[in-house]
Every structure is written in C-alpha cells, then in structure tokens.
Model the fold of this input.
Amino acid sequence: MSDEPAPPRRSRAATLTWLAVACAAVLLVVAVGQRRDRPVGDRTVGEVTRVGVAAGASIPAYLRAAGHELARLDAPDAYALVSFAAYLAPADAAAALGGAPVSAVVARVPLPDRQTEIVRIAALRLPDDVLAGMVEVAGRKDREAADQRARAAAPAATADPELRRVYDTGADVAAREAAAYRAGCACVYAAVVRADPLALRALAIRPGVRAVDPAPEVVRLDRTVFLPPLPEQRDTSRPPADTGVAPAGGMSDSSEAARPVSGPSPTARPQVARSGSPNPASTS
Done:
C-alpha cells in the first residue's frame, strides 16, 4: 500500500465550478445580445409634446425664455420652432429661414376678424412643398365650403334664420381660405427646423425671425403640437379674434398636420407650453 496521500477532490470540484460559471456568463452575454437585437417597444405612444406659448400666457415672457434656452443649448442637433414677425408668402418664408433644414411650416389665412384654421404643412423643400401643400389645403377648404352651403340649404336651416346665417358664414370663411391658399398667400408664420446650436442662434438674428424656440426633447414630430405666437399678438397668447358668427361645428385651431397635406420629458420654463400630456392632440 502506497503512503502517498490521495489527490484532493477539492481541486477538481473548484475547476468544474469555475467552468460552470464561465458557461453561465457566456449564455448571459448571448441572451443579452439577443434581447438587444429585438425591437424595443415605443414608449412615446400616447404622449404628446407641446412646444410654443401656452394659451393665456405672456408672449414677452415666452420670447425671453426661448432666447435663454437657445443661449444655453448644447445638444448636437435639435428641433426648434421658428416664429416669424409677420405672415409670409412661401418664398419669403424660405428667404427668412436662409436655407435652414425645414420639416414643416405653420400657417393660417389672416382674415380680418375671423378665426381661421391653423394648419401644419409638411415641407422639406421651400417654397415648392409649401405651395403644393397649400393647394391641397385649398381643396379641403372647398369641400368644407360646399358642406356648409349644403347645411344652409337643409330644411332645418331654412326654418331657422340664425342657424342659416351660421352656415353661410362658415361657407364664406372656408371659401376665402381656399382662394387664399390656392393663390399661395402670405399665411406662413412659423416653421419647424432641425439644426445645431450655432445654426439656430444664427437663424434667431435673421431679418423677419421673431424667435427660435429650441426643443431638444422632441423625438417624433407626429406626436408634437407646435404653438407659435400669432404675429399680430404682442402681449398675451389667445385664439385669433373673431367678431363674426362661428360656423356650426366650430372651426378648429390646430398645429396638427392637415390630413391631405402631410414628427420626452418637458423642460421647465415659465409660460411655455411644453408637456408630455397623454391627452391626444387636437385634429384639423
């Protein structure tokens, strides 16, 4: 019988343990890699970001806040809401933007004492895309005018002079909007651009530009509502003035893209509409 001690079993057990740990680590890495290859769920569904000046808010305070945020902006590339000092024709809007990369424009027909619809028109090439979008909005307005006229001729309206006057007013406003858009009117008063901080700051001092409001939190334009101040308003943000009779069913004010024409967390800023509310955006 040999006096040599038996080889320790412990060394073999330790080797097997480390081997098992290594295999588990490899499996974990593979599993993580496979999970990362799978599509990630869209966490933005149901959220809407609002960029611009909130209804009833001070416009001077909004302009100051936008300027301060622009000065501090350090994002490599960000969306921004550009407000103009006046309503511009498509070619004039292109000149005011100076070649900045545009995603959309915001427009309305500035009829005196009438609350006309605010529309967002997708536009990558100015002025061509804006002009084409205006033609499509004009077609929709023609259909709205025809619908209002049909309602005015219905028995319920003919028996009620006040109701008929409401429909007639709606038809008149829609027809005037259609004519203006078809003629390429001076209706554009804001644009959505995407650029780096230096380009946005240069844009802010261009003639005709009222403000550049950076929105680095915007990820999807189709889940963002833009609320630029109206050029004629200097003190408080409010709906366009309307001293006429509102059309039945109401005329909406919306920064959502017009149906025939067609992209986080809010930042804390005084008097600025900037939220991720789950409420759906208003539609045109």
Summary: Residues 4-42, 247-271, 275-284 have pLDDT under 50 and may be disordered. DSSP finds seven helices and nine strands in the chain. The helical segments are 9-37, 59-72, 90-97, 128-153, 155-158, 161-182, 197-204. Residues 266 and 275 are 5 Å apart (CA to CA).
